[in-house]
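User: I'm curious whether this sequence folds into something compact or stays loose and floppy. Could you predict its structure so I can see for myself?
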Amino acid sequence: MFLAIDTSAGTSVAVVEGELVLSERSTEDTMRHAEVIGDMISGALDDAGVPASGIDAVVAGMGPGPFTGLRVGIAAARAFAWGIGVPVIPVVSHDAVALEEWAAGTRGDLLVVTDARRREVYWSSYGLDDRMPARTDGPGLCKPDELPYPEFLRVDATQVSAGDLGRAARMHLDLGIPEEFTEALYLRSPDVTMPGARKRVSQ
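Assistant: Here's the prediction. I'll summarize afterward.
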């Protein structure tokens, strides 16, 4: 049984058992991750009728995503996992979007795109065959008019489903696919930086 958390685009929390999503709570609000994440975790567990002790692992969406929002979800996933003594499974957030398309019957080459703000977008490319969706390039960051693979089917996602994130984690484990990205995928410097040393004032 997995608890899955993603804050790369809005906030989504789900309880997943195998291929079955037992509960999911989501919002597309990209400004209140920290305010809603605790209640959404509690609510998703209550909706599924699953106690914290019933969770075997916590799936964390690693992005790509904006710095502030993304780190809230990853921190929440790590704190919850530490609290109940279970591992964290990192998954690229775009993998959830690709899995949703694959499960709906889409096949061929796919480009997943999400908003990166600052007039930029995040992207990942996938090959969707009958076996599974496989990431072939990315994640990357660019201007909208610089997106690669213009011939691919493009999906612009405004929300990443934690339910699909948990299902992607289960598929990766079942197929023995290691997750190469174990740290947050900000893909650029944070919006807020530490100030440098104060300049000496000349007398």
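Summary: Residues 2-175 form a domain with the Nucleotidyltransferase; domain 5 fold (CATH 3.30.420.40). The mean pLDDT is 91.
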